[in-house]
């Protein structure tokens, strides 16, 4: 896969009008997010393998702010210090996105009447925004629910718990999704199975530092095995069990 400017130039025939590349790049990223069917992956190239230049920092940050789901690095740039630098750039660019405006624009693109799963995904993301949730825990089999949640760009990570490794690998490409593979088979008790899978997501969120004691967490689950799709949204609060204590900027426990 080539870089995004080259792909856009070849697709639109803009070999002599390169000044429009940034405009069409943002347009393509917006339509990737609005359609929500395929992840938008932006390829970047690093000219100097010793460090990232200022122009490359701007390109990476703009790709994140335009809505890219992932960045594709060439094999020769997969060096530890470069990957770490690019990760820091992405983390710093993410807070610059105005999440409420993006959520409002994406929800306006959904026509009514719409499928019930779209309504559930919009409600879950809005609940996470209103409650300042630390994470959204989604139980999914096909991965479609997690993809729809990612489409509406929540401000918190989506922890998708699935039993299928293939689905988990696919969800890795979508923005904000952290897939988990649940290895335990279904034993007949649906309520217990749902509770254990949600608890796995909460424990993982605590382990990686997404969730702290007392944080709100939105869970998206199904009420019964035959529902065919999630139809239940709950807001729960993380307990102190296995939770890291909250600390202020001086390192003191709150």
Automatic annotation (TrEMBL):
Source domain of life: Eukaryota
GO MF terms held by the record: magnesium ion binding; potassium ion binding; pyruvate kinase activity
Pyruvate kinase C-terminal domain segment(s): 120-236
Pfam families assigned to the protein according to its UniProt record, in alphabetical order: PK_C
PANTHER family in UniProt: PYRUVATE KINASE
Protein name per the record: Pyruvate kinase C-terminal domain-containing protein
